Amino acid sequence: MNAGVLPQIDFDLPKLPQEKNQYKSCSSVVASRSLEFGFNFTSDRAAENRWRFLDSSVPESHRSLRGQLTIDRGSFSQASDMEVHVTTRSSDENELENVHLHKSDSVLNFDYDFRAEKDVCTEVEIVVLFRPWPKRSLDWFDIRTSIFDINFEPSLGWEINNLRTHTSHGDVWMDSRFPSNDPLIAHNASISSIDGVIFGWYIPDENLELRSEDGGIGGFICPRLAEGVPFDPKSILMSTLSGRIRVGLIYEVWPAKVYTHRTKIESVSGDISAVVPHGTQTNISSISGSITTAIRPYGAASQNATSEIYTASRSGDSWVILYSPPNESLDGNYNPLLNTVSKHEVGEGTLWLDYPFAWWGEMEAKIEHGKLEFEGNLLEDIKREEGHVTATRGKKGASQMEAHVSTGALTVHLGLQELD
Question: What is the C-alpha to C-alpha distance for residues 99 and 112, in angstroms, rounded to an integer?
């Protein structure tokens, strides 16, 4: 991306998280205990395979309790389909008795007796190991914890229909960055935290949802590159209340094909910086935060295929750049920018738009109080008034674009560059 084209956007991908979080260990340890639990699952596709980790410790426990839960690739020689190793360390030997674990067929329960009057430090390290063979498929894999960090390592090899993880005050990390013939496939993944950070490398196999209220979201959306594994995302959802959202996309490795997913990224007061793959709909909004986004469309399966783009900020600035679809994705397909409906709104602030040469259709830009700047290429039927302009670009497209600012500044560049 040329910095002269869109100087306000700063998609510095190396600044996004590269390594998982490591909790701070206890400075003094005088006692430890290790436990191991085994879980087995049926290979019968007609039966449901479920596994849950449930943490019942109270939020105040973070004053003396810390730790993490790691999901990793196990050994071919391990006795159970899934092994769970739990190591507890503490600055007080008596504290080991305050950590409780209870196993049933498909659930591991955790609890901790918090004593506010005691000045102790206890750490718990939980490692969940998937046996590589025989591979298992799970209908549900569910982790609920109050304070532990959650880390997913690469090459886990299993297939999970519904992956649900929530940590109230811990961070979540998932590592899906490396192409692998033994990937974790999670068809429907929901990752959430209250004030922890969600970060890493995420693949939207079908439906991907990331939610953090105050901790923020940062990371990369990755394609599925493993041989023989289909990649057809359905939805990408990300949301925060006040946390910042920063999303990167390694555009060069995304397969150039038709995508039909919907993307929704929203925050109440957090800023949003996002490079996203466009399917049938992209919707990015923040009530009081700023929006900085680059949108990458791909070929459409038909001339009338749905293509919708929306951005909105009530009291923050918005900078939007829309790229042309890659030529490889148009082979036997259609240019979605001939039939895209888009609307960009700012209440109070600046709205800056740059649309590519591949976009053709009708546009309208309006500002109620402030300055309007408009520049385009191959325009017809241009009508200008104070704070208002309409125009048509070419005859071959039926796209409709609307830009509106109540108070601030509005800049629209239409078809000036290839932007590919």
Answer: 5
- Local structure of 59: helix, strand or coil: helix
Distances (CA, A) of 125 to 15, 114, 352: 28, 18, 48
Q: How far apart (Å, rounded) are the C-alpha atoms in residues 281 and 194?
A: 27
CA nearest neighbour of 218 among 235, 237, 203, 197: 197
Residue-wise DSSP of 9-35: ----GGGS--S---PPPPS---EEEEE
The full set of domain ranges for the chain reads: 27-235, 244-420
Residue 255's φ and ψ, nearest 5 degrees, are: -60, 135
What token pair was written down for 287? 């009530």
Per-position pLDDT tens, the chain of length 420: 333 344 344 445 445 555 566 678 899 999 999 999 999 998 776 678 999 999 999 989 999 999 999 999 999 999 999 999 999 999 999 999 999 999 999 999 999 999 887 789 999 999 999 999 998 999 999 999 999 999 999 989 999 999 999 999 999 999 988 766 788 999 999 999 999 999 999 999 999 999 999 999 998 999 998 778 889 999 999 999 999 999 998 888 899 999 999 999 999 999 999 999 999 999 999 999 999 999 999 999 999 999 999 999 999 999 999 999 999 999 999 999 999 999 999 999 999 999 999 999 999 999 999 999 999 999 999 999 999 999 999 888 899 999 999 999 999 999 998 777
